[in-house]
């Protein structure tokens, strides 16, 4: 499952899936991955992900794209069953319980445990959509999937309301983290966010860490993990096989 060709509103795209390592700060070892879609135009040039996803959602092809991501995840986990991999679910598919059931059936068909897959909901989803998604999230947990909240920036949801959603993981947005070594105000914001989130008992991951000066400060505040180019860029299927040794 190396790539998939897409026709998006008359434009030809080639899609691949890469895997961003997430590092556990205690020991600096990879403990899970995040699946990331990459899109290339007909000339082979990489297209910005947000631009691509917006066009794909508008064209109605988001389910086709998500299917390919999910199948790539299942294929990888089947080859090494102790991997944990997350993927972001489009806001257009939140509350689609028939689609959720399809994802679960794919796990059964492929012999993959849902417990090794984490469905990520972006905080860019509105609070009203979150409230409406409670039955969906509950069903996902009953199937065995883990659930995470991405891009957390304390703007859309309040920390004291997070218990309603029973998230396994919360990913702190890079906008909070980037530049904490140069800005006392940003560092204070991060301290408050981490302190509040740690009280919820979820796994905390800091997103998009690029600078060693920011990483040095993060080590003092005990998030569970980080991802960012300071450790690894996203890995292709071949690269992850070499790294994991299978």
Automatic annotation (TrEMBL):
SMART domains: EAL. CDD domains: EAL. It holds the Pfam family EAL. Residues 1-246 form the EAL domain. GO terms for molecular function: cyclic-guanylate-specific phosphodiesterase activity. This is EAL domain, c-di-GMP-specific phosphodiesterase class I (Or its enzymatically inactive variant).
């Amino acid at each position: 499952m190396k790539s998939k060709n897409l026709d998006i509103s008359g434009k030809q795209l080639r899609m691949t899936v890469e895997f961003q390592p997430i590092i556990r700060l205690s020991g600096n070892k990879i403990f899970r991955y995040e699946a990331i879609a990459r899109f290339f135009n007909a000339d082979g040039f990489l297209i910005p992900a947000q631009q691509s996803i917006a066009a794909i959602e508008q064209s109605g092809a988001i389910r086709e794209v998500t299917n390919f991501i999910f199948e790539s995840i299942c294929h990888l986990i089947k080859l090494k069953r102790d991997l944990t991999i997350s993927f972001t679910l489009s806001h257009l598919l939140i509350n689609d319980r028939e689609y959720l059931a399809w994802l679960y059936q794919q796990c059964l068909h492929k012999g993959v445990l849902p417990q090794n897959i984490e469905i990520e909901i972006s905080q860019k989803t509105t609070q009203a959509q979150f409230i409406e998604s409670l039955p969906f999230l509950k069903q996902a947990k009953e199937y065995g999937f883990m659930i995470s909240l991405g891009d957390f920036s304390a703007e859309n949801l309040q920390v004291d309301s997070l218990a309603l959603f029973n998230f396994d993981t919360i990913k702190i947005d890079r906008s909070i983290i980037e530049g904490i070594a140069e800005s006392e105000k940003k560092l204070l914001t991060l301290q408050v966010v981490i302190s509040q989130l740690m009280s919820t008992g979820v796994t905390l991951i800091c997103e998009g860490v690029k600078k060693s000066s920011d990483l040095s400060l993060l080590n003092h505040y005990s998030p569970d993990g980080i991802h960012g180019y300071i450790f690894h860029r996203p890995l292709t299927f071949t690269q992850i096989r070499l790294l994991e040794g299978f």
